[in-house]
Amino acid sequence: MSMQTNCPECGAVYEVDGDLGDRPLRCSGCGHQFFVEQNERSALIIWCVIVGLLCLLGGFLGGVLTTKTTQSEMRAKLAEAEKDKTEAKEVLETADQIVNVLGDVKSQINAAQTSLGKAWIVGSHAGTLETIANIRYNCTNILAQSSTTERKTMVVANLACTLVQLKALQNNLEGFEAEYSDTWLGLAMQPLLDAVRREQAWQNNIIGFCDGSNGDIKFIQPERQEHINSLMGADFQDAFQYVLYDWEDRPFSVSAAGD
């Protein structure tokens, strides 16, 4: 390794090999002969050692910093992965809740459809009864205008047919009431049965007026017919109120996901 030295005679500066040992040097300027001092070689050696140590220290510190940076990145990636795992778990839990809610809604809809089907049966029975009542009302209007024998005979024939229909309707309602005796729909049959029995009794009285077995003219008077019809309307209202109660027994009590 080269080093600098000075001529002790003229001060000229030379760059020489540090491994000269004890070999003499001759100054080209003044011709003076001299040796490289040991302390200069020692200083050079110390300087080389210091530079080497600094290089080693720099490499070590660089490695430490790189290691710390790598560990920080790994910790950040692990934290991010844990966050993703937590979010995925929350998504799965939310999906399970949605599936449960949809299952509950489906059950509620099926139950509501069942109630609507039964309500349709109640409505059909009420419609049949109303049709029969309209026939009776028209017959009494005919008699109110003129109670001729011919008209009485026609009314009796018509009411004989409606009484058969009323008996069939009564049997259907009683069977429906027995089948659903422990529900609101079973209770809905009771006011309809009351209306059917009242209509049967009223039509029998009209037939009695026509054949002479019952001479009470009130059974064909228009105001009395209106009264009977209003009672039937109240029975229909009670019946459908029970249908509404049956519907309200199946509320859509659905919770939002996550609650």
UniProtKB/TrEMBL annotation:
InterPro entries (alphabetical): Znf/thioredoxin_put (IPR011723)
NCBIfam families reported in the protein's UniProt record: MJ0042_CXXC
Keywords from the UniProt entry: Coiled coil, Membrane, Transmembrane, Transmembrane helix
Domain of life per record: Bacteria
Coiled-coil region: 71-98
TM spans (from-to): 44-65
Protein name in UniProt: Uncharacterized protein
Organism: Anaerohalosphaera lusitana
